[in-house]
Amino acid sequence: LQVTDTAGCDFIADDVTVVVHPLPVANAGADDTIGKGASIQLIGTGGIQYFWTPVEGLNNANIFNPIASPDSSTAYVLTVTDLFGCVNTDTVNIHVFGFESPYWLPSAFSPNGDGHNDVLYVRGSKFLTFEFSIYNRYGELIFVSKDINVGWDGNSQYTGDEMPSDAYVYKVDGVVAEDGTVVKAKGLVNLVR
Predict the structure, then answer these.
(1) Which of 72, 76, 81, 129 has its CA 20 to 30 A from that of 87?
(2) Per residue in 140-187, pLDDT tens?
(3) CB 193 within 8 A of CB 110
(4) Taking the model in full, what pTM does it have?
């Protein structure tokens, strides 16, 4: 900025630096599909503050990882704010099957030996074929069962190691005996020690 007057004096100059920060990279995760009546954990990244809309069907719209239980297919918009107050958005689509889910799985379990919620089971319909598998955050298979009555105890099926508290990916695949419905589902389950 240069300022001068009408008396012919030399100009006076000053400057200011404007720092433009890039927008945060908002990521609401990949689109997914669940059965009616089921829940799924949304995972958002890219900021230090998070807000999801619509808020209906969410257990908490102000965290990065709310549990969503939509009654119908829903596009969730994630708004993230970074350290500098910059804001960006991303959208994830959760498609809901038009029928009650043939299975149910809790969102968390605690294999701590107290006799309550020590084993993670898939509950639901009778299946003609069934496979339940658990993967760690690196995509490594750590448990698989082809029997709905055999659940995951929180240990690696292959090494016997106790798995740490974390979110794990589950997959349920099968064919429902009653009507031949094909189930191909995945989601997150929290192991809490």
Answers:
(1) 72
(2) 999 999 999 899 999 999 999 999 999 999 999 999 887 788 889 999
(3) yes
(4) 0.49
Tokens 């669940």 belong to which residue? 34
Nearest one of 176, 123, 173 to 146, comparing CA atoms: 173
Q: Is the pLDDT of residue 99 over 70?
A: no
Query: According to DSSP H, which parts of 35-82 are helical?
Result: none
> Token pair for residue 187?
């989601």
The residue with tokens 């349920």 is 172
Mean pLDDT, residues 100-117: 82
Residues in the chain: 193
User: DSSP letter at 148?
Assistant: T
Report helix, strand or coil for 116. Answer: coil
Helices (H), 1-159: none
Cis, peptide link before residue 54, omega less than 30° from 0: yes
